[in-house]
Amino acid sequence: MRRILILLTLSIIYITSAKAQKIDTLSINLEGVKYPYALKYLPLNIDGQDINMAYMDVAPTITPNGRTVMLFHGKNFGGYYWGSVIKALAAVGFRVIAPDQIGFGRSSKPIINYTFKQLAEWNKKLLDTLGIKKTSILGHSMGGMLATRFALMYPERMDKLLLENPIGLEDYKAFVPASTVEEQYKRELKNTAQSIKKYYQSSYFTIWKPEYDYLVNIAAGPTFSADYPKAAKVAALTYNMIYEQPVVDEFKDLKVPTILFIGKEDKTIVGKGLLSKDQQAIHGLYRFLGKNTALKIPGSKIIEFEDCGHIPHVEITTEFLIALIGGL
């Protein structure tokens, strides 16, 4: 009996310890996450707040070709998932700049009115600070919306616009019910590792593999932090930015050479949880959205990937990199 009590006590201690470790795993600024390359910080100021924009600046690992590629991450991610892309681009002579947008990753998370215009201005300031006159921009997911806005605002600063499964290929306001920031904030507070993984499995990948778990761990880690309410508020504000500031009607105005890289099995919809199953079945279909968008962008090209979801550079890394470098 005494042995059973000891084992039970040890089990309780272990479970409690594991839970505590999980709670403390990640801060909302992801200090515990290892980035593939060293981070630097650009100081900025908005509404009287001093903030910092984290970024990686990686030099070519062979003779430089004189060109730069800037990488814009998606809403549920940060620069940490660009490692293979940075390595491949640097290996063929490109300088690579990979920022964490304000409100994401290692960058500051101020409570402000987020706009794609402001984010674009900050990225231009980063280029100006680094002395970079022109760049190609690869934007994934939300980063594709931001890259599109940047291209519309500063076409003279770009060589190419590269869109990897960008969101915003349809106007979410046309079919997703409107939400206040407060309503979205309450939904963000309910996020768990289980709900995040379920969403990633249903929208982002065709077949789930254990190596994708790290993306869930990074996204879910801050939900255990005492500061998570602040991160949830920022997430609600950036959700509102996506919902209220579509680019779908402006693709026709792009003047930068554009390539779309589309995983055809992607089913991403911003606000998917607010839709019925029948509504989900007719929206977020990238096998159609990609082609339709390519028709809207003057002179654009599209490269489609079979059996691939929302993140080609993770799900089919080699195939994606061959297409990307060929496109550049």
From TrEMBL:
Residues 68-314 form the AB hydrolase-1 domain. Residues 1-20 form the signal peptide. GO terms for molecular function: hydrolase activity. Keywords: Hydrolase, Signal. InterPro entries: AB_hydrolase_1 (IPR000073), AB_hydrolase_fold (IPR029058), AB_hydrolase_sf (IPR050266), Epox_hydrolase-like (IPR000639). Pfam families: Abhydrolase_1 (PF00561). This is Alpha/beta hydrolase. Gene3D superfamilies: alpha/beta hydrolase. GO terms for cellular component: membrane. The keyword Coiled coil does not apply.
